[in-house]
Write a sequence for this structure.
């Protein structure tokens, strides 16, 4: 034995080991999430600033855990490490299976493609276990250091340590908050709508994504007010009165037994129909299709934060978009009385087809919830041509033809196009399209018109393909734009294109339309333009009635029924009745045909009714009331 005992040296050395162990553990955790983000970058562009907010979360965790009682903090940190590593692995498996991140919102939900649990063995790779490699090392370390004498810094909560911890915590919180805030400013509402979870992850970091997701799930599951009984009876009474008052439309059942093909066209705005540029039609195939269909030319965009998904939601359920967040991401566990379900009751096979990742907009969860038998996504198509966000419309339509041909009849096919997505400038479009957009060549409007022309070319081929396969005359085909395309900032281009003023709010509102066309084989309905104001929410009722199915789906009306002056309702409580645009929030009513202000008080009672209807739709969603209201629960 020398002058200094072993334990003296060991003690001095050990004094520094716990902080080292501690900091190392959290650093390794950071690296794990960093690698996860790298895997996500196959699905969404990665922004390196996201690493700063992940580092912020790690800093917050490190400081918080360092303040725990020293006897438990080592183990607590290890447990945290283990749980977080499980989260990383869950994300990885979700990515491989759904091309999507794991979300607490979907916990316990199944899909038609099977439970992920069944596939874990098939999805997991030996290298994944490396994520857990640090854990036995840290356990061994804790075992060795069971007799630690801690360094002073880690022993007592001194004033110095407290101040240091607070400064570190503030730095961590600021890093996270800054990233949250700047991303939300750039893309308003993104963290509550969560339409593309991989994109959110790679903008704010995987850890911060989970934080935002956990916050959403917490608010969704724990801040639910109980629905008073009187409210429930009020909703029930409203639905009963409404359904009792529904009369079969003039063409009820004329398309009984036909297939139904719905084509939701990305960003198809009303003004495109019959538009000519330099004397050339932009969408000749669509225009021809409109001439052979019931063509609704006064349909207003009713979507909210959920864009495409809100359009899908309205068209299948007849419910309004969600007041907060997005119905597709918030209410995938609800039970719906939706078009595919009602069609299934009548012997239909239903399938949704879309060339994007299945997790985008939570479709992989929402489609089964609405009753679709099958979802054919980018993961199922052969991705032989990619444009912009996913499979090109050309390939999508081509492959869909074969799929529909082979599908058991009668079927309901819900098809969603993708290529003509904002900002309309994807490389493959200009290569495939020949359209001289004159003064708009190369700018936003010119690109948009080209993307519409691109869609139209593919749509034309699809219709020809249906004809060749005998599907055109055995199917009802509904085509519509999901929402408008030209944002406010490019008003001037639209004014130039249409040679008219769009300066005032009502003129702009009048442009917020999307076309709807319904082709019924056999000429049952005289083709022609129908100009009564309408919305996508009216489609399920209209189509069900046409096919002779049980109706009463949601808040819409039968567009082939008699128009009784129903308002077209927008998510913010404004509405259109006849030609009048009413904005209760500012007490304004404007006659859009004359551009004249009207006396708002004439519409005040209707404004109250509109508010009630939106409220009923919200309560149905928040409290999952459909089974109760339709009797399916009893
Ligand atoms: C992607 C597409 C998105 O799948 O449907 O459309 P958006 O909601 O962004 O218009
Ligand atoms: Mn869209």
């Amino acid at each position: 034995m020398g002058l200094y005992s072993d334990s003296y040296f060991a003690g001095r050395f050990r004094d520094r080991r716990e902080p080292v162990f501690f900091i190392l553990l959290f650093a390794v955790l950071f690296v794990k999430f960093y690698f996860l983000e790298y895997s996500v970058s196959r699905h969404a562009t990665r922004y390196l600033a996201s690493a700063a907010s992940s580092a912020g979360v790690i800093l917050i965790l490190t400081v918080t855990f360092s303040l725990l009682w020293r006897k438990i903090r080592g183990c607590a940190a290890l447990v945290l490490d283990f749980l977080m590593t499980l989260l990383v692995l869950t994300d990885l498996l979700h990515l491989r299976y759904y091309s999507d991140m794991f979300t607490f919102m979907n916990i316990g939900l199944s899909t038609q493609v099977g439970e992920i649990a069944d596939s874990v063995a098939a999805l997991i790779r030996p290298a994944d276990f490396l994520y857990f490699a640090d854990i036995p090392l840290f356990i061994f370390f804790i075992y060795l250091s069971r007799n630690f004498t801690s360094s002073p810094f880690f022993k007592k909560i001194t004033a110095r340590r407290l101040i240091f911890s607070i400064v570190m915590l503030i730095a961590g919180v600021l890093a996270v908050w800054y990233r949250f805030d700047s991303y939300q400013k750039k893309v308003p509402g993104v963290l509550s709508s969560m339409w593309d979870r991989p994109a959110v992850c790679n903008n704010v970091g995987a850890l911060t994504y989970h934080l935002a997701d956990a916050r959403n799930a917490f608010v969704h599951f724990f801040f639910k007010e109980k629905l008073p009984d009187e409210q429930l009876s009020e909703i029930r009474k409203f639905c009963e009165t409404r359904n009792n008052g529904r009369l079969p439309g003039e063409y009820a059942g004329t398309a009984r037994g036909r297939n139904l093909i719905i084509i939701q066209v990305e960003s198809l705005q009303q003004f495109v129909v019959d538009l000519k540029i330099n004397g050339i039609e932009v969408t000749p195939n669509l225009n021809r299709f409109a001439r052979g269909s019931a063509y609704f030319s006064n349909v207003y965009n009713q979507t909210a934060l959920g864009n495409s998904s809100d359009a899908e939601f309205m068209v299948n359920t007849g419910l309004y978009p969600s007041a907060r967040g997005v119905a597709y991401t918030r209410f995938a566990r609800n039970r719906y009385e939706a078009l595919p379900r009602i069609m299934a009751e009548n012997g239909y096979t239903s399938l949704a087809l879309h060339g994007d990742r299945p997790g985008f907009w939570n479709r992989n969860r929402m489609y089964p919830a609405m009753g679709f038998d099958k979802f054919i996504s980018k993961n199922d198509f052969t991705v032989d041509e990619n444009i912009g966000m996913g499979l090109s419309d050309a390939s999508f339509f081509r492959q869909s033809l074969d799929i529909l041909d082979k599908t058991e009849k009668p079927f309901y096919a819900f098809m969603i196009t993708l290529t003509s997505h904002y900002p309309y400038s994807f490389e493959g479009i200009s290569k495939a399209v020949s359209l001289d957009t004159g003064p708009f060549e190369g700018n936003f409007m010119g690109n948009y018109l080209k993307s519409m022309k691109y869609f139209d070319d593919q749509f034309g081929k699809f219709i020809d393909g249906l004809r060749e396969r005998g599907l055109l005359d055995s199917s009802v085909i509904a085509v519509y734009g999901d929402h408008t395309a030209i944002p406010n900032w490019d008003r001037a281009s639209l004014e130039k294109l249409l040679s008219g003023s769009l300066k005032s709010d009502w003129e702009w509102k009048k442009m917020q339309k999307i076309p709807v066309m319904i082709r019924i084989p056999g000429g049952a309905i005289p083709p022609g333009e129908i100009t009564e104001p309408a919305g996508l929410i009216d489609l399920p009722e209209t189509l069900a009635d046409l096919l002779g199915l049980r109706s009463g789906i949601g808040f819409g009306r039968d567009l082939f029924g008699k128009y009784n002056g129903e308002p077209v309702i927008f998510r913010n409580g404004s509405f259109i009745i006849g030609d009048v645009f009413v904005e209760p929030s500012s007490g304004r009513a404007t006659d859009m045909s004359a551009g004249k202000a009207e006396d708002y008080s004439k519409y005040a009672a209707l404004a109250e009714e509109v508010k009630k209807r939106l409220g009923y739709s919200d309560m149905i969603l928040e409290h999952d009331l459909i089974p109760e209201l339709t009797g399916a629960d009893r």
About this structure: Residues 266-267, 307-308, 482-483 surround manganese (II) ion (ligand 2) (CB under 6 Å).
